[in-house]
Amino acid sequence: MITLENVKRRAEMDAKAHGYFLTPDPDFLQNLLEGLKENEERYGYPSCPCRLASGNFDWDRDIICPCDYRDPDVEEFGMCYCALYVRKDVAEGAKPIEPIPERRPQEKINRASGEVPEKKEAPDTKGAARDTNRKFFYCKVCGYVTFREEPPHVCPICRAKQEFFEEIVLDTKIKVR
């Protein structure tokens, strides 16, 4: 069973582990935590409480809290998009909580709202990786490997930035001897 206390504890532990704080407004924090809990009950994963999720894990992977955009947002603006995670200056009231620009690509936002472009041909069921934009990427710092549309903004293992990821190109040609 998902409890509000567990959702809060998980967010607090993650904030502390990365040098962040949770939003200082107790009512706002309560609303965000309730949104995370509701989304986890609804979808089976804690999607961002301030973004529209599709209910498809693969499509929503980038907005599972803490989302892929949190670290660059906190670094640049002092808070993540929904302001659940904030820098110390925001937590102490030296910097106000303000709206920040959305980093999530418009294509993903459209897909979550049901605006999926039609496919021109039937998908190739023999090679699932062929009918997707996902690619393999690896972190050149720690070796973490992921299969996504683009590399994460920050490596979830070693915290290396996106530029330290490189695409893995697979040779799919069959060689006959």
In short:
With 177 residues, this protein is of the alpha+beta class. The protein is built from six helices and five strands; from the N terminus they run αβαααβααβββ.
How can the largest sheet be summarized? Answer: 3 strands, antiparallel
Number of helices: 6
Coarse morphology: globular
**Helical content band:** 25-40%
Estimate what percentage of residues fall within beta strands.
5-15%
Rg over C-alpha atoms, rounded to the nearest angstrom:
18 Å
CATH architecture of the largest domain: Alpha-Beta Complex
Number of strands: 5
User: What is the CATH homologous superfamily assignment of the largest domain?
Assistant: Ferredoxin thioredoxin reductase catalytic beta subunit
Low-confidence parts lasting 5 or more residues at pLDDT below 50?
A: 120-131
Q: CA-to-CA gap between the ends?
A: 56 Å
Mean pLDDT: 86
Content-based structural category = alpha+beta
Q: In terms of topology, how is this protein built?
A:
Blueprint: H1 4-17, E1 21-22, H2 26-43, H3 57-60, H4 70-77, E2 85-86, H5 88-91, H6 106-112, E3 135-139, E4 145-148, E5 165-168
Antiparallel strand pairs: 1-2, 3-4, 3-5
